């Protein structure tokens, strides 16, 4: 049986010796996050667990979290006229185009840990700057049909064209395949993916690259997960925690689709250092029935944010032209990921290229820039978290010192995504 071995103090070389001592085989090292994986008998696992400072846990199977509500093809269409209904993605286009030149999320690089990405889809051509496969599937392509849609919502399309675009069409994607062509992975495949992204971030830093460089990953998007174990030192949680704390990478994860039951938020979204995203009914601020609820088994309030999650139009994995409509927190998560690109670019324009933006660092201010239904708890709760990020409010705060007059004039249209729904009407 395969196990994950972690230590709170022993160096990897010493752990490797301990594994060899009990007869462990097929050792794989995630040296950046400090995990090892190996084959052990139950007897050997018990012996290794007795070594002070070592944590030995069986490797879990992890499956893609997705709910497909519609598998029919969605034909490409030009951006609507004012008389036509607006789609979710059109709302982002309106927001980007308010600025001159338009903001596109340029400078953001997101590592999508998922089932692979169909990089030849017309909306994703040129967006994938790096690929890595931790599974036994033969290619990094998306055969299962999940990662392509996630990548599209973050960075798909060419801004200004009549084709569909994601939130930040100027962003770049790292395709880190951690689930197989059947949509199945393990702790090991996902942690090895996190390890690779941390390795790339460290290499970029040592090379003197700016965080806006294509090869400098800023965010890890994980729209997959496993059932909460209630273990604060679960291997997957620890790997995410280290990515955030040691490598300044935001980790944004799907809360899961097991609501409305309480305490259904998935790993690793249960980790306090991770930004967990639940789901709303698209075009509203009403929680989606299946969006996972907190608290976590350790009592932490989750999710952190919510965003639209139902009937979301995404690029299809089936060919290079098609689009599908899908639902799930898998697809609300990349909205929050992509928003980081727009907010970060806005701030860099105001304050210079070295201005930073991380969701994990602005969570403490979330009550001031998020929207909830009037009946929801004012503070963070286990259904909505802090609520839905209102981009207009955040942009106003970011740019106020240099663009106060312009933003004030824009606020009737730009006050935030949830309020824009009621302003423009006809959201589908």
Q: Briefly, what is this?
A:
This protein is an alpha/beta fold and 428 residues long. It is built from 10 helices and 19 strands.
Q: What's the average pLDDT?
A: 87
The CATH topology of the largest domain is given as: Rossmann fold
| Strand line-up in the sheet with most strands | 8-9-7-11-13-14-15
Portion of residues within helices? 25-40%
Radius of gyration: 21 Å
- Just give the CATH class of the largest domain: Alpha Beta
Poorly predicted residue ranges: 66-84, 402-428
CATH architecture of the largest domain: 3-Layer(aba) Sandwich
Largest sheet descriptor: 7 strands, parallel
How many extended strands? Answer: 19
CATH fourth-tier homologous superfamily of the largest domain: Peptidase S8/S53 domain
Write the element-wise H/E pattern from the N-terminal end onward: EHEEHEEEHEEHEEHEEHEEEEEHHEEHH
In DSSP terms, counting alpha (H) and pi (I) runs of 4 or more, how many helices?
Answer: 10
User: N- to C-terminal separation?
Assistant: 48 Å
Strand content: 15-25%
- How does the overall form come out from the CA principal axes? globular
């Amino acid at each position: 049986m395969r196990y994950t071995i972690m230590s709170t103090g022993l160096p990897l070389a010493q752990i490797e010796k301990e594994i060899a001592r009990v007869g462990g085989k097929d050792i794989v090292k995630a040296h950046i996050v400090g995990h090892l994986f190996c084959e052990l008998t139950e007897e050997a696992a018990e012996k290794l667990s007795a070594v002070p400072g070592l944590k030995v846990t069986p490797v879990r199977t992890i499956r893609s979290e997705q709910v497909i509500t519609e598998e029919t093809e969605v034909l490409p269409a030009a951006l609507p006229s004012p008389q036509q209904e607006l789609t979710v993605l059109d709302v982002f286009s309106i927001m980007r185009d308010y600025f001159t030149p338009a903001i596109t999320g340029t400078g953001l690089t997101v590592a999508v840990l998922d089932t692979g990405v169909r990089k030849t889809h017309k909306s994703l051509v040129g967006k994938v700057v790096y690929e890595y496969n931790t599974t036994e599937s033969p290619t990094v392509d998306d055969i299962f049909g999940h990662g392509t849609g996630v990548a599209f919502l973050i960075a798909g399309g060419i801004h200004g064209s009549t084709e569909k675009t994601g939130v930040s069409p100027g962003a770049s994607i790292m395709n880190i395949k951690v689930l197989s062509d059947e949509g199945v992975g393990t702790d090991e495949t996902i942690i090895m993916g996190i390890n690779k992204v941390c390795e790339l971030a460290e290499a970029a830093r040592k090379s003197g690259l700016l965080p806006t460089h294509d090869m400098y990953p800023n965010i890890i998007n994980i729209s997959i997960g496993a059932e909460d174990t209630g273990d604060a030192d679960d291997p997957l949680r620890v790997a995410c925690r280290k990515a955030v704390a040691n490598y300044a990478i935001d980790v944004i994860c799907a809360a899961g689709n097991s609501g409305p039951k309480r305490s259904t938020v998935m790993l690793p979204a249960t980790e306090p250092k991770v930004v967990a995203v639940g789901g709303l009914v698209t075009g509203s601020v009403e929680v989606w029935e299946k969006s996972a609820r907190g608290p976590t088994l350790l009592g932490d309030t989750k999710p952190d944010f919510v965003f639209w999650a139902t009937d979301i139009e995404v690029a299809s994995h089936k060919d290079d032209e098609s689009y599908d409509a899908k639902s799930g927190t898998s697809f609300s998560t990349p909205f929050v990921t992509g928003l980081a690109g727009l907010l970060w670019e806005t701030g860099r324009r105001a304050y210079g290229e070295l201005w930073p933006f991380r969701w994990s660092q602005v969570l403490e201010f979330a009550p001031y820039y998020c929207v909830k239904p009037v009946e929801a708890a004012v503070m963070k709760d286990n259904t909505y978290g802090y609520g839905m990020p209102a981009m207009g409010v955040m942009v106003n705060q970011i740019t106020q010192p240099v663009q106060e007059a312009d933003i004030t004039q824009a606020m009737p249209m730009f006050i935030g995504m949830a309020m824009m729904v009621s302003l423009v009407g006809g959201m589908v």
